[in-house]
Each structure stands twice: as C-alpha cells, then as structure tokens.
Design goal:
Elements lengths: L4 H4 L10 H4 L3 H11 L10 E8 L6 E8 L5 E6 L15 H11 L1 E7 L11 H14 L12 E6 L1 H15 L9 E5 L15 H11 L20
Parallel strand pairs: 3-4, 3-5, 5-6
Antiparallel strand pairs: 1-2, 2-4
Helix pairs in contact: 5-6
C-alpha cells in the first residue's frame, strides 16, 4: 500500500530515528518534531469547552469538558495516548478528537489530563486518575451535567489501555459504581501476551521498550494485576 503523499514527502526525516535516541539527541528530536508538524491549523468544531478538575486520591485531576451546542444525548470519558509518558489535554488526540466526538455524536465528552508516568508517577496512578474522572461524571459534581443516554469510556493508544483497565476495575467493583455502557478503544494495547513480532515487528518492540522500561526505584512484581495487564 503506498504512503499518503503528504507523509511520503516527509518520511526521510525519520530515517534512522528512534524515540529512545531522540530523547538525548536534539537533532533527531528536531526531525521528529518536523515530521509530526501539521502545516495547517486544525479546525475545531463549534462546541462548548470548559476546564475543570475532579478530586482524586493523588490530588485534583485536570479535565476538559466538551458539550455540543445541541442537547447532549450520550457521554464519554476520553483518555489521550502518549505511551503513558507523554501527551496532554492540548494535543490533537485529546483536544481535537474530543471536540469532534462531542460535535458529531451529540455527546458530552470529558477529556482527562491524567498524570504521566515518570518523576515518581507509576502504576496505578494514571488509572486512579481515570477512575476519579469517571466517578466525577457519574456520581460526583459532574453528574448534574450527565445526559440520560449511555455513558462510555474510551481512549487512544495508551489511553485506550487505561480506559480498558479502568473498565475492568469498575467491573470488579460492580454494585459500587456505574459501569460503562460501551468502550471506545482506538488502536489499543489489546494483546496479552503480545503476538509474535516476526515479520518486521522488531523495530516496534525496540520503540515500545522506551516506554516499558522501569527506572530504578519503580516497584515490580511477578503478580501482575488485571488492571496493569488489562487484556489478559
């Protein structure tokens, strides 16, 4: 399958570049930044946007709430990706996607600025933040905004893994909190164990190792919780 012409003209920028090496090589990081740059500003749909916070076990969790101009018919708690270590509420996978979902699906969308791994943050802190956002919407201050329709939980990439882990936690606590009526998982980590990397997956595994590596001081265990390995 041929590459999209827009990407084909830029693919030379990432030749020989890995995420791991770019962290310590400014020249490679500049090439990555140029590769991902979009020459056109995205057009954000006309929706109401409000920045709020939800209380959580590790402190307040940043939220950005999107509401359609028409009456909301459903709701979604949305988690951006970024390899568990990157991303924020302003990235397109959070801001633009949440606005589009609110606009196209007549949905109240709560985008979650969960804490990122590193600098003392590790499992299950991001899941705790996602859980706190869910409880805020379904039981807490946000419940007054909730439409009568279904409430879903979703995310992209690492955010999809966190959404799935949060859904399993809610399932295991059945009777104590509302569970999602649906899951919206975009390109999630959804294999346990991972499928074979034979046939060209070695480079991808090398890249994932950057995010999977646990620095000294992080707790490890041979007993993996269902929320840490969410698709077992």
């Amino acid at each position: 399958m041929p590459l999209d012409p827009f990407l084909a003209a830029k693919v030379h920028l990432v030749d020989g570049v890995t995420w791991a090496t770019a962290q310590s090589d400014p020249e490679q990081m500049a090439r990555l930044t140029e590769f991902f740059a979009d020459p056109a500003e995205p057009i954000v749909p006309d929706v109401e946007i409000e920045n709020l916070t939800a209380p959580g076990p590790h402190g307040d969790v940043d939220l950005r709430v999107y509401r359609p101009r028409s009456e909301a018919r459903r709701a979604l708690v949305w988690l951006h990706g970024g390899g568990f270590m990157g991303g924020d509420l302003d990235m397109p996978e959070a801001h633009l996607v949440a606005a589009e979902l609110a606009f196209r699906a007549d949905a109240l969308v709560v985008s979650v600025g969960y804490r990122l791994a590193g600098n003392g943050v590790h499992h299950p802190v991001p899941i705790d933040d996602a859980h706190a956002a869910w409880l805020w919407l379904t039981e807490g201050e946000g419940a007054a905004r909730l439409p009568e329709g279904p409430v879903a939980l979703g995310g992209a990439s690492a955010g999809a893994a966190l959404a799935l882990a949060t859904a399993l936690r809610l399932r295991d606590q059945a009777g104590h909190a509302r569970t999602p009526e649906a899951l919206l998982l975009a390109y999630p980590f959804a294999h346990f164990p991972s499928p074979s990397t034979a046939g060209g997956g070695e480079r991808w595994v090398e890249e994932l190792g950057t995010f999977a590596h646990q620095p000294p001081g992080w707790s490890t265990s041979t007993q993996t919780s269902s929320s840490a390995a969410s698709c077992r």
